[in-house]
Amino acid sequence: MRPRPLLLTAAAVLAGAHVLGVLFARPLYRPAELLAALCLLAYAIHDASVPRAGADGARTVRWGLSAAVAVLVAGAAMTVPPAPSEGAGWQILSPEQYDGLIWRARLESLVPVAAVLVFALLLLAMLGRTTKSRAVLRTAIVAAALVAGYALLRIVVIEWGADRVSTTESTSPTWSPAAVALPALPALLLALAAVALAVVTATRRRWRAASGAVLLAAVALIWLGAAIAARDAATLFSPDLITPTDALPQPTEATVAALRWAAAILIVSGLGWRRPID
Asked: Which residue, 68, 81, 181, is CA-closest to 115?
């Protein structure tokens, strides 16, 4: 088996192990996600190092792909699940320590979306300008407007509902629209970047990468809706999008992880597949 298909297969298997661990809230292999990202990085580096006559610009893009995947590696390294013994037992925390743990949980929940956002932005920067087509431009504008409109609608609906509840209970609202919008901003930027990446790759007939970008946009929309709705949660992304059960305690997180890694594998393999990038 050639190195590149082998690396992609290994990345898919390790990503699947990570998704199963997330689904059952019990990691099958703690560094599985990190190793999956490292396999993708090895694939990108191997692809960039293969000589191709008259494809200097394409090689530059492929080395840019390696840099983008390195961001995914960093994000996976920051979110490796702790060992079962870590944090076990009762702990007495002061209010300051408790608040610190809450903020740490919120920041850790932002790591995956931040890593994927930088990944998408680096790819957009490396791919350069897209085809000057009015149809493509219209498609991108309509898709971006739909994403932004969805976010605005969610914020308005939640704020309107909060105002009604506060009026009924004769209490003042404890949060503002800005408090909802700011946590959702990274996911909104990711959704817009994913739409742009889908347009750019589709104009170059990189259909595999374009399909991965579409999956990435779906992940961003899930994150966006959950971030807006989870304003009072310890994490920014609500675990209740899909109802958990005792047998499957984390279905939402597992779905997002599966889509995210499927998107990453499709994008990486699609941008380094068969022929030079135009």
From this structure: 68
